[in-house]
């Protein structure tokens, strides 16, 4: 739930995927989703400089054109994308809503490159 800095500030275990559209037949299809609250913290020796809370939903196919998307792979790739996006967003700064939008957009872009069919959206 939080990012303090460095790799694995956002743990793969935070992305607990649940099936939202079951895979019904062989081939690409099905969806699983993980809703996550990410707390972006920028900590300096003087204390917390920024503290922004973002609510996101990560969706990945159960099966894409490359085969089965295992939960463990989806968790790992989501965590890596979240860490990189968080680091970038914290460096660029801005207002809370802007930072969350930028985080979501950046994480979505990064995750789509790693898992075909994945997406990151604002959690409702």
SSE diagram, text form:
Blueprint: E1 2-3, E2 18-21, E3 29-44, E4 47-64, E5 67-68, H1 71-92, H2 96-114, E6 119-122
Helix pairs in contact: 1-2
Number of helices: 2
Record field, number of beta strands: 6
Structural class: alpha+beta
**Biggest sheet, open or closed, and with what strands and sense?**
6 strands, mixed
What is the H/E order? Answer: EEEEEHHE
What is the rounded Rg? 15 Å
How far do the termini sit from each other? 17 Å
Portion in helices: 25-40%
Unreliable stretches: 1-7
Task: Tell me, rounded to a whole number, the average pLDDT.
Answer: 88
Strand-residue fraction?
35-45%
Net shape:
elongated
Short description:
The protein has 2 helices and 6 strands; from the N terminus they run E-E-E-E-E-H-H-E. It has 124 residues and is an alpha+beta fold.
Question: Which key phrases capture this entry?
Answer:
124 residues; alpha+beta; six-stranded mixed sheet; 2 helices; disordered N terminus
